[in-house]
Design brief:
about 425 residues, mainly alpha
Length: about 425
């Protein structure tokens, strides 16, 4: 489908020619509609299940005799495999009528994978299950984000994504707390099996509440490579910074394991593991409290500028982990900063895409962003786990901090240009 010179210029600049400039649009009112509520509640339920298993996973792997390198490889490989699913899922999400079915299927399969940990007998089974869960999350994420971006006015997108991330992370607060309570009352495998329930409820809520905004007009059918080539040039530069930062943005399960190992000599293994899960709940509580205010502020200023701050917080997280001591208050500060970093990164990266990429390409853009981040996570979690086993946590987390700082510098330089 041909475009005029003015439309092509708008695409290259990251502006949707079909959307009026912010100054010409009315104030964003009524953005908290039924669909936005559905996005939030589904994310809330899904993350209860996902974070329950995430909190229990390091202890479960330790019971299977797996060393830290295995945890890093599992997280890295799962993230890497999901990158292809994110890219393909994003391309499929450029077809508006496919977005909701893809998202519902992704939520359903994620819930099933959470419960499947209960029957894993070796760490290789855990690897396969974790990979299946992350592939499902990868398929659904671009479709969900594209649906959310279309469900609210342009000037309210930061708030909408902040609200969705806030409810998501509220579920992530309850997940570890539920894990603590359940671990005290039932075998670990039963805890993992329980996580199936909230995952299936998430798919049901999404199917009932979310109503796609199908706009009139034909949809251009593009091949994947054509959609990738059509992404705005400015957005491609943004992906470079995201990738470099992702190389240092290690999985939070490694942080849980680090806290458990630091506290074990002082508290003993059972209490150390419970304390580490509690610290992870604090991480998610900070995330939940910060996500909406960050999104609201992004509606009034530059999301890119705020995101530089988030990347710097990622570097602080890694460097604090490198020099952490077996002190619960110090570890609490570390987990709180890590949660604040995630609130910045996940809210603002999604907002940047919603504002800078036209609706017709938004699914591919979200998929590409997720794929690039996933490749960075593959490198980060795998390298941190391997360096930890070979050289110790100081070198492992120190290297991650350097990568995060480099990503912040690239993003800051690109924003000034």
């Amino acid at each position: 489908m041909a475009t005029s010179n003015s439309e092509q210029s708008a695409l290259n600049a990251g502006v949707d020619p079909a959307v009026p400039a912010p100054s010409s649009r009315p104030a964003a009112r009524g953005w908290l509609n039924r669909s936005v509520l559905g996005f939030g509640v589904a994310s809330f339920l899904s993350d209860i299940g996902h974070e329950t298993t995430t909190a229990a996973l390091p202890t479960f792997l330790a019971s299977l005799g797996a060393p830290p390198a295995v945890l890093g490889v599992i997280e890295g490989v799962a993230d890497g495999l999901s990158s292809a699913a994110k890219l393909v899922g994003g391309w499929l999400a450029d077809h508006p009528r496919w977005r909701k079915p893809i998202a519902v299927l992704g939520y359903f399969l994620t819930g099933v994978s959470n419960g499947a940990y209960a029957v894993c007998a070796t760490w290789t089974h855990v690897l396969l299950t974790r990979s299946g869960g992350w592939i499902s999350r990868g398929i659904r994420a671009p479709a969900r984000n594209a649906l959310l971006a279309d469900s609210v006015p342009r000037r309210a997108r930061g708030r909408a994504f902040g609200f969705q991330r806030a409810l998501d992370s509220t579920g992530a607060v309850l997940g570890p707390l539920i894990a603590i309570l359940l671990v005290r009352t039932m075998p670990l495998r039963h805890v993992l099996a329980w996580s199936l329930l909230p995952g299936l409820l998430a798919a049901l809520v999404f199917a009932i509440l979310v109503k796609p905004e199908l706009r009139p007009g034909s949809v251009e059918r593009r091949a994947l490579h054509t959609s990738l080539a059509a992404l705005p040039r400015r957005f491609r530069g943004f992906l470079v910074a995201t990738f470099v930062f992702g190389i240092g943005d290690f999985a939070r399960t490694l942080l849980i394991l680090h806290a458990t190992r630091l506290l074990e000599p002082k508290l003993g293994m059972p209490l150390a593991a419970t304390t580490a899960i509690g610290l992870y709940a604090l991480h998610n509580l900070v995330y939940a409290a910060a996500a909406y205010p960050i999104g609201r502020f992004a509606d009034r200023t530059s999301p890119r500028r705020l995101l530089v701050h988030g990347y710097v917080l990622g570097a602080m997280t890694a460097l604090l982990a490198a020099f952490a001591l077996p002190s619960v208050p110090m570890l609490a500060v570390l987990f709180a900063i890590a949660g604040l970093c995630l609130a910045y990164v996940e809210t603002l990266e999604a907002t940047v895409v919603a504002l800078e990429v036209p609706s017709a390409l938004r699914g591919t853009a979200y998929g590409t962003l997720a794929a690039v981040s996933g490749i960075g996570d593959l490198l980060s979690s795998s390298l941190v786990g391997i360096l930890w086993s070979a050289c110790g946590p100081l070198i492992a987390f120190g290297a991650a901090g350097v990568a995060c700082l480099s990503g912040a510098a690239i993003l800051g330089f690109a924003r000034r240009r």
